[in-house]
Amino acid sequence: MTAVGSGVSAAIPSHAQIERVVATAKRPFVLIGERELEALRRAVATPGPKRDAYLKALSADRDGGRAAGVSIKASAERWAAAEIVIPQRGGHVHDFFCDCGTQLALPPDMQPKPAYTCPACGKSYSGEIFDAAVRCFRHHQLAAAALDLALAYAIDRDSRYADKAAEILRKYAEAYPGPHSDHLTGGILKQSLNEAMWIIPLAQTYDLVYDSPSLSDADKRAIEHKLFRPAAEGIRVCGLGGNWGSWHLSAVGVVGLAIRDAGMVEFALRAFEAQMRDELGDDGLWPESVHCYHFFPLQAFIYFAEAAYRAGIDLYNLQPKPGKGLRAMFGAPLQYMYPSFQLPAINDGWYVAWLPLNLYEIARLRYSDPVFTWVLAEGCKQQARAGASGPTRSLSRLVGPSLYWFLFGDPTIRSLSKGVKPPRFSSTNFANFGLCTLRNDRIMLTFHYGGFLGHGHPDKLSFTLFADGALLAPDYGTPGYGSKILHWYQSTAAHNTVAVDGADQARSRENNLDAFLSGKVAQYAQATATDVYPGVKHTRAILVIGGACFVVDDLTSDTVHDYDWLFRCEGAPRLFADYTDTQIDTACYSHVKLDSTQAFDGFYRVTWRAGRCNLAFGLFGSGIAGLGKCPAEDDMRHVSFLMCRQHGTSARFVAAFAPTRPGEQCSLTKTGALIRVESGNETIYLSTGTQSTGSLTTDADLAAVRITNGRVTGAFLANGKRLAWKGKPLIDKASTTATAESVF
Ligand SMILES: [Zn+2]
Ligand SMILES: [Zn+2]
User: Fold this and answer.
1) CA of 533 to the centre of ligand 2 (A)
2) What φ, ψ does residue 422 adopt, rounded to 5°?
3) CA of 100 to the centre of ligand 1 (A)
């Protein structure tokens, strides 16, 4: 940590330095500074996108309470005329969900009602926990309103806005019932987490109207002593672990800066340093879930880091351990996200989650790395595309100009980004999180091999598949935690892995990859699970080569089991042959409905037609295949579900996937012991064991040859020494190697 502009130092400023910085920072500085405001006023005064955003629309702030499409100016005008009534203590927003997984419709006036209705299925609910949830939303809305008023005042200098912002602060000081004493007791919101999220915009508001005539000295004393101090002192005792701790420390830090309390700021700085050192993974990811719990603490940190930065303390370049800090938290997700900027919804959290461009505005501001310019320009394009065509209703509210873009963004980002090279995307192993990506220019898979972490799911060895611009086989994350259907998302069957005897996996403690190759022609990973089903060993290998990918599973046990290979896919399935109808018992999968169950011997072939991208699929071996439907991101939308059961002491599944664009032909066949995928001008041959005769000979467990326009262009093997094609050696090693490839 360092004073701004004085070079990088890893030391926290001394108590005396913190006291000086906190006492002398020139207001406003907590959210935005005077020079930045001057630029903003100029931008808003002239026709252009900033003026449009100010007057007409800003995207929703999911955690902050601003509705979609409502501009700061419109919000300020509306609230300036509103009567401010502070509600009683609020409850928990996750209680405000229908059994089907959809959030209930909020009353437009945000006041408790006799009943609340589900907009998806029409079911209605009533009672105190729902009223309390509405009050929680209302508190967040009032805090967001105060900030909109304060920003509008800072831009327009209209005293009506400052008066109303000051009124909200004064009324909260009168109504505040007393601090939290633990994370669910005390405060004005049930969870100390919500209390932290609510107090931050109020502290930013206070800083913005502090020097206005709307606040008297007596007001300031009352607001500091009856609202900010007790709230921050309460949050401070509620713990510093996990993402709650991130919000707790940030709220204490932001309040400390806003009321110039050096003790609070020092506490927050030390807690921030400890979280970066001890909680952030060495791989740069927050080890809970990335789409939700990585950016959730990052959002909190930025509130604190921004306020500290303007005061003269640089948290952006603090690295308590080499490579660990805010820079890593911005950088690592770029290799984790799908090419569409959607984030794989592994573990708990909303399915529809995108790289949050709002936060990347701050990355561009605080780091000179052009990669963040590219992220913003390309991200806008991708999100506009998805907003126009996406199947998911909740996306549109997140697309559009964001608050940080409005405050600090550059409207000419697209032309600025011309000539900026995109980052080099490559297969990446996030070793702490226990997930690797496998990708080439058409395909990206995630492979979740790691142990069970906070907010984890029993999804060991599960994969997701993205190809040709479409997320074909996702993990759907979770709906709201209050949903009755939550247990489905937290079950093994809701994931693309192998379930044993229909049971959920135990929580794994293993976090190892057997092999990983980020190659020029082949992308490969292999992992083994021995602790998720007692007495069962499961090894899964995934290979991406050219336009095909292969998933090979081996399961062994001393006793007999039902082994269920599970997969779901967007789009409509089409079966390619007649198989024999038969029966299997799937009572264990409560939310799965099978339309057909068929025995096959040799090859089971399906193609999913998903609009932008089709997926040819073949499962080689024998077993009973069940094709039907299961819930997608909630119980109102269902997707195609495929399971394949083998029964015995062991099982082997060999699956081949080939994405095709509409109109492209793909043939998937087995000739002798070789699987052949032919698409366009490319053919891939895969061998899943030793071959001593035929075109492809090898001693490896897994081997593949890529042929382009009739010429061998690549070869790969796993756990072997030799691979030859028509007698010509392609790979020839002196000793057995985990992975090897050749490019021709
Ligand atoms: Zn419903
Ligand atoms: Zn999951």
Assistant:
1) 18
2) -65, 155
3) 4
**Tens digit of pLDDT for each residue in 285-332?**
998 778 878 999 999 999 999 999 999 999 999 999 888 999 999 999
Q: What is the mean pLDDT of residues 681-703?
A: 96
Q: Among the residues of 113-158, which ranges form H helices?
A: 128-156
Q: Please tell me whether residue 431 adopts helix, strand or coil conformation.
A: coil
Question: Could you read off the pLDDT of 505-536 as tens digits, one per residue?
Answer: 999 999 999 999 999 999 999 999 999 999 99
Distance 114 CA to ligand 1 centre (A): 18
pLDDT category at 46 given cuts 50, 70, 90 is very high
What is the rounded CA–CA span in Å between residue 317 and residue 288?
A: 24
Cα 38 from chain centroid?
Answer: 35
Closest ligand to C-alpha of residue 475 is 2
Mean pLDDT of the chain: 92
pLDDT tens profile 190-244: 999 999 999 999 999 999 999 999 999 999 999 999 999 999 999 999 999 999 9
**Three-class secondary structure assignment of 47-58:** CCHHHHHHHCCC
List the single range of 171-175, 301-305, 382-386 with lowest mean pLDDT: 382-386
Q: What is the pLDDT of residues 98-137, one digit of tens each?
A: 888 788 999 999 999 999 999 989 999 999 999 999 999 9
Report how far ligand 2's centroid is from the alpha carbon of 467 (Å): 20
Question: 117 C-alpha vs ligand 1 centroid, how far in Å?
Answer: 8
**What is the whole-number distance in angstroms between the Cα of residue 527 and the centre of ligand 2?**
18
* Residue entry with tokens 């070793």: 431
Please tell me the distance from the alpha carbon of residue 438 to that of residue 418, in angstroms, as a whole number. 28
- pLDDT at position 234 is 98
Stated pTM of the model:
0.92
User: Residue 113 in 3-state DSSP?
Assistant: coil
Q: Tell me the CA–centroid distance for residue 126 and ligand 1, in Å.
A: 14
> Which ligand is closest in space to the CA of residue 105?
1
The DSSP result for 565-606, as a single string, is: EEEEESSEEEE-S--EE-----TT-TT-EEEEEEEEEEEEEE
Residues 635 and 591: beta-carbon distance below 8 Å? yes
Q: What single-letter DSSP state applies at residue 420? A: P
Ligand nearest to the CA of 455: 2
Burial state string for 301-328 with b = 16 or more CB within 10 A and e = fewer than 16? bbbbbbbbbbbbbbbbbbbbeeebbbbb
For residue 101, the CA-to-ligand 1 centroid distance in Å is 6
Q: Is the pLDDT of residue 1 over 50?
A: no
| Ligand approaching nearest to the C-alpha of 493 | 2
* Coil/strand/helix, residue 179: coil
Q: 634 C-alpha to center of ligand 1: Å?
A: 9
User: 3-class DSSP state for residue 15?
Assistant: helix
Does residue 58 carry a pLDDT above 50?
yes
- Ligand 1 center to residue 122 CA distance, Å? 6
> HSE (CB half, 13 Å, CA atoms) of 481?
8
Question: Which one, of 98, 105, 99, lies nearest residue 119 by Cα?
Answer: 105
What contacts 22, CB < 8 A, 6 or more positions away?
Answer: 256, 257, 260, 261, 262, 265, 311
| Closest ligand relative to 100 C-alpha | 1
Q: How remote is the CA of residue 103 from the centroid of ligand 1, in Å?
A: 8
Which ligand sits closest to the CA of 97? 1
Ligand 1 geometric centre to CA of 128 (Å): 19
- Among all bound ligands, the one having the nearest atom to the CA of 482 is 1
Q: Residues of the chain with pLDDT > 70: what percent?
A: 95
> Which pLDDT score, from 0 to 100, does residue 61 have?
55
Distance from the CA of 458 to the center of ligand 2, in angstroms?
7
